[in-house]
Structures are given as C-alpha cells and as structure tokens.
Amino acid sequence: MKSKFLSSAALASLATAALLSGCGKASDSGKIRMITEATFPPYEFRQGSEVVGIDVEICKAIAAELGKELAVEDVEFDSVLPSLIANKAELAAAGITVNEDRKKMVDFSDPYVETGIVVISAKSAPVKGAADAKGKRIGVQNGTTSADYCVEQLGQEPDRFDSPASAFAALKAGKIDLVIADVDPAENLVKGDADYAITSEPRFLTSECYAIAIKKGQPELLATINKVIGEMKASGRLAAIFEEFKAKADALAAGSGACACGESCPNAACDKSACPCAK
Ligand code: ARG
Q: How would you classify residue 236: left for phi > 0, otherwise alpha for psi between -120 and 50, otherwise beta?
C-alpha cells in the first residue's frame, strides 16, 4: 500500500526527516525528485521494482539538463500535488491534466500530449457516453479528472479506486457497470480482452492536456522544463519515447508472450521462470 499524504506514518517520517535535515528543505543530494503514481501505463508503471514510462523519461531529461540524477517516488494519485506543494519533490509527473483548479495550486509546463478520457464497458452492452452512463455504477481512479467528470458532468458520485486497473477488475467482476479513465491506460487495460472495450462514441468524453507540475513561483525551473520539452518534441525524441513505452506497456499487459520485466518471452509457452527477470 502506498503512503497516503500526511498519514501518521508519513508524519512520523517527516518529523524524523525534520530532525535530521530541516523540514521541507529542497533536495540537496544532487537528485531531482519526481513524484508520481505508477499505475498509469504507458506514462508510469512498474517493471519489476523500477518505475518506468514516458513521464519518467521526460523527467530524466529535465534532471540531466540540470546536471542531476532523477529519483522517483510513487504515492497515491490524490497525494501527488499535495506532496509537491509540501516540498517532497521538485517535479510532479503523473499524466497530470492541466485544469483551472490545479493551476491555482501549482505551475504547469507546456503540455507534452493532447489526450482525453474514455468509457470502458462490456462489448455486449456498450455504454457510449454521458446519456447512457448516467445512473450506472461508474468506476474511476480517485482524484482524477474522470472522477471530476462524474461529479460535474453526470451529477453523480463514482466508485473510487486506487488505480485504473483496480476499477477495471471491479468491472470484470460485475461490481460496477463501466469505467471512465484516460485513453492510454484504458487502451492498455482492454488490450486483447475478449469481453470489454473502449465503447465511448465519439471516443473522447473530454479533451485534456498533460504537463509537468512544479511548485509555484519558480520561473527559471519552468523555463528549463519547457526548453527540454520543446527540444524533445522538435528532435522526435518525445514521439520515440511514446512508441517505446506504449509497446513495453502493451507487452506487459499481454502477459503471455512477455515477461514481467517487459522482455519478450524466451520460449513459446512463455514459461515465466525462463524470463530474464525471474533469475
Ligand atoms: N489525467 C488524469 C488527471 O490528471 C488522470 C491522471 C492519473 N495519473 C496517474 N498517474 N495515475 O486527473
């Protein structure tokens, strides 16, 4: 279970950290800290014990520009921005949608992708959009724009889960009727699924942009981040990273044919004990 922001355990460790190094001090270890929530492929997901993905690559490039190494911390999604504001990281990167409410709390970089949220439901009883979603049991990841969509656009409380995957598992178990989630993790979840698919028509319920968030009032850091993102777009590196991590996340989702570490299976039956990461 991930640490909840300012849980008693977190408070205790904050208190200890305060004694040791001064509370709320920015990183002085030569590292840039990225805070994220790593159940969101292809942007951030676990390969073995490591958090990898598009957001990690972007933040690595930012850290390199600053002459530092990247350290990644994984918390619950609704703790990502509060943790940033509490100086627990310099960068928040978690497929974070830019919106007016969040702009009041943090500063956002230039966007690095245009995307949106979609409906996942049974192919046999497809939910196509707001009109037929209303009144049904809807699963979302807590703290996301999908949760906001339910409350603000559909006027109803969703069932809140700690990841898109646990919402999807509840859908498959018949506990809810549909999932609303960001399109890329949604595509990853339904990949190869015989019974469930993205069923919204038109595909997107919203139009959203992701950006890196930082604590307010740091124009120099913001300019550096925007420079790195601009260069990654212009050089084609960003597009290459998208392709690489979509493929890696899909290979992981497919299960058979892929090892847990993302390597392809060394034998046709995909005996997982033969995977490089199992050794
Ligand atoms: N884009 C959505 C939002 O900002 C969902 C992001 C969820 N990200 C994650 N790493 N779990 O609310």
A: left
